Automatic annotation (TrEMBL):
Gene3D superfamilies: Glutaredoxin (3.40.30.10)
Pfam families according to UniProt: AhpC-TSA
Tree of life domain: Bacteria
Organism the protein comes from: Nitrobacter hamburgensis (strain DSM 10229 / NCIMB 13809 / X14)
Keywords: Membrane, Plasmid, Redox-active center, Signal, Transmembrane
Name of the protein this chain belongs to: Putative thiol--disulfide interchange redox-active center transmembrane protein
Domain Thioredoxin positions: 40-191
Signal peptide: 1-20
Molecular functions per Gene Ontology: antioxidant activity; disulfide oxidoreductase activity
Length: 193
């Protein structure tokens, strides 16, 4: 009887560790009107990006290790990006900030005044809004040029980084981030061990 119990405990521990540290990811399917979330396999470390906050200070992405990061590349002149912002704000407001963060990376050129105005006008209080005006990290892909660190395949492009800072995949186009499906999708990554 003790041997049977020990075997059952061993099997349960093995199954538990397999789900805690999956070999490959299997999140719920997330689609929008344009595309669906594309898993990156193998996972790759996110670049150590240093972006400019709206206050002019440098923000290093390694600050967010230990949290799931929704990294959204957008522009204030992009209608689909503007359409998506309220749902990103609602998602960020609904989740604990010690486990999840939305980093909205503006690719607007200029000194950032238009981005500050946009943030104020849309009352974006729960997003970490930063700028990449020189497109050092997020840039549109184009033939004949080397692929950027975080390719932007269209506006908006969203990446999900896991708690270890690994790029899990991306989604192109506006998404209703505060929908039950999107919430389930994000919860999948938050609940990974």
């Amino acid at each position: 009887m003790r041997i049977a119990t020990a075997v059952l405990v061993s099997v349960a521990a093995t199954l538990s560790s397999a789900t805690a540290h999956p070999e490959s990811l299997d999140p719920p399917t997330l689609r929008n009107g344009i595309s669906q979330f594309v898993l990156e396999e193998p996972l790759r470390p996110a670049p150590l990006m240093r972006l400019r906050g709206l206050d002019g200070r440098t923000l290093s992405m390694d600050k967010f290790y230990g949290k799931v990061v929704l990294l959204n590349f957008w522009a204030s002149w992009c209608a689909p990006c503007v359409e998506e912002m309220p749902s990103l704000e609602a998602l960020a407001a609904s989740l604990p900030s010690d486990r999840f963060v939305v980093v909205a990376v503006s690719l607007d050129s200029g000194d950032g005044r238009q981005v500050k105005s946009f943030v104020k006008r849309h009352n974006l209080r729960h997003l970490t809004v930063v700028r990449d005006p020189n497109h050092e990290f997020g840039a549109l892909t184009s033939e004949g040029k080397p692929e950027p660190t975080m390719p932007v395949y269209g506006y908006p492009t969203t990446y999900i980084l896991d708690k270890r800072g690994l790029v899990t995949g991306f989604l192109v186009g506006p998404t209703t981030w505060d929908s039950p499906l999107a919430r389930s999708f994000i919860d999948y990554f938050i609940n990974l061990k």
